[in-house]
């Protein structure tokens, strides 16, 4: 087994939930102590307010926009285009813009709460390319996703690194959706010098890069590493270090993912409708135990079969447990292949830590993998998860991500030795 797989597996193994572990440590937190979920650079940086009539601004804005505000225990929860485990939003987005008319060539932080771009670094002959695709220069956009891990570890402790990667994958999915709506191709990149970039962007160990998405024209050109360090700015109002998370991130950042050929997906959504879906996407809190049609279920599966635009090809397999799909026997499936017939709804509810959504839905999905690179596999699971949200919402079907499940019991139920990366529920 390669070294990095050991490290990813060691992290995954030591953060498994079981019936007992959840009883002993139910993750109760005092909501009033939640760290702030919006990073803001100091006032003296130059800012560009996003003007939604400008297509470039609209493209950037839709990758991360706040789309709804909900009062939770007297504090407003700002919900976004991207879902997030526990609505804790550990992810931040930075965008390098080069060669775009009307914009200064530079690295910008996307200040989601205030709807603006903060210019944190002006480019001369340097840039992010040297860390990501050496000897190339990109005329266009480089989106970097990072995680301010304490936002999530505040509640989910050691297991939160899993949620950081899944959330990051969802955020990449939100970038892909905005790119699709703005007629742009993107490529996801997971294997690059993340550790050097964390240092040069001044993240200390409190924030870390998980992935990037590039969009634009790639040219052969030497670009230097950043000539200056960006100063550290904390992404939360207070911070508690978790050395296990910092260590686990670092050791899983080091090795390469499996390689595959780059292929772009081809979707044919009605774009006006899809735009509304991206804007209105929400997680369901309770299903009404209704059936969905076979046609709609197969449509959601088809979205998952579309290529993911990346050369990092970890295999993520998806098991479906069908409870309420018209014309299809309830049971455990892999794709459309029936592995075991039966009504397993009570069982999936139990496996997902007694969550009713995993019992009352039409289909419970489980994502499993025997990954080479743990960070990549988890993010690909999140990326596919975003496709399930948008693909099912497009058909009027509701959806929720599920990060809490009993790991080993789920493996036994699926009869797999691979790791369970993520679960999801869809239905009405
Ligand atoms: C990685 C991940 C794990 C999640 N796990 C659960 C879960 O176990 N149970 C649940 O009810 N919702 C879960 N959710 C849904 C979040 O609670 C939801 O995304 C968040 O509250 C924001 O709401 P929204 O998706 O409606 O914008 C999860 C979401 C993500 C992205």
From TrEMBL:
<dbReference type="InterPro" id="IPR020051">
    <property type="entry name" value="SagB-type_dehydrogenase"/>
</dbReference>
<dbReference type="Pfam" id="PF00881">
    <property type="entry name" value="Nitroreductase"/>
</dbReference>
<dbReference type="GO" id="GO:0016491">
    <property type="term" value="F:oxidoreductase activity"/>
</dbReference>
<feature type="domain" description="Nitroreductase">
    <location>
        <begin position="280"/>
        <end position="427"/>
    </location>
</feature>
<dbReference type="InterPro" id="IPR000415">
    <property type="entry name" value="Nitroreductase-like"/>
</dbReference>
<dbReference type="InterPro" id="IPR029479">
    <property type="entry name" value="Nitroreductase"/>
</dbReference>
<protein>
    <submittedName>
        <fullName>SagB family peptide dehydrogenase</fullName>
    </submittedName>
</protein>
């Amino acid at each position: 087994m390669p070294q990095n797989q050991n490290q990813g597996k060691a992290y995954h193994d030591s953060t498994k939930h079981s019936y007992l572990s959840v009883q002993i440590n139910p993750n109760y937190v005092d909501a009033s102590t939640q760290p702030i979920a919006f990073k803001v650079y100091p006032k003296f940086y130059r800012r560009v307010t996003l003007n939604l009539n400008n297509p470039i601004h609209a493209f950037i804005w839709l990758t991360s926009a706040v789309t709804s505000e909900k009062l939770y225990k007297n504090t407003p929860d700002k919900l976004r285009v991207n879902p997030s485990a526990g609505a804790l939003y550990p992810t931040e987005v930075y965008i390098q813009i080069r060669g775009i008319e009307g914009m200064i060539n530079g690295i910008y932080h996307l200040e989601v709460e205030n709807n603006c771009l903060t210019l944190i670094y002006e480019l001369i002959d340097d840039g992010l390319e040297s860390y990501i695709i050496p000897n190339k220069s990109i005329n266009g956009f480089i989106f970097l996703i990072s995680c301010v891990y304490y936002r999530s570890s505040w509640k989910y402790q050691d297991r939160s690194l899993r949620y950081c990667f899944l959330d990051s994958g969802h955020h990449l999915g939100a970038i892909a959706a905005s790119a699709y709506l703005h007629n742009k191709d993107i490529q996801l990149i997971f294997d690059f010098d993340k550790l050097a970039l964390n240092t040069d962007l001044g993240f200390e160990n409190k924030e870390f890069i998980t992935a990037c998405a590039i969009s634009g024209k790639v040219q052969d050109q030497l670009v230097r590493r950043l000539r200056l360090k960006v100063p550290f700015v904390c992404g939360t109002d207070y911070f508690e270090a978790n050395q296990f998370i910092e260590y686990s991130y670092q050791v899983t950042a080091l090795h390469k993912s499996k390689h595959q050929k780059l292929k772009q997906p081809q979707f044919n959504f009605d774009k006006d409708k899809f735009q509304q879906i991206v804007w209105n996407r929400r997680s369901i809190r309770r299903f009404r135990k209704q059936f969905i049609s076979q046609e709609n279920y197969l449509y959601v599966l088809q979205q998952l079969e579309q290529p993911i635009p990346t050369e990092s090809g970890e295999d993520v397999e998806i098991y479906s447990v069908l409870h309420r799909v018209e014309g299809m026997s309830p049971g455990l499936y892999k794709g459309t292949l029936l592995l075991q017939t039966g009504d397993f709804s009570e069982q999936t509810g139990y496996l997902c830590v007694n969550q009713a959504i995993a019992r009352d839905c039409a289909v419970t999905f489980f994502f499993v993998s025997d990954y080479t690179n743990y960070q990549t596999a988890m993010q690909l699971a999140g990326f596919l998860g975003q496709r399930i949200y948008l693909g099912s919402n497009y058909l009027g079907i509701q959806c929720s991500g599920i990060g809490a499940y009993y790991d080993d019991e789920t493996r036994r139920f699926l009869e797999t030795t691979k790791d369970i990366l993520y679960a999801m529920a869809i239905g009405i």
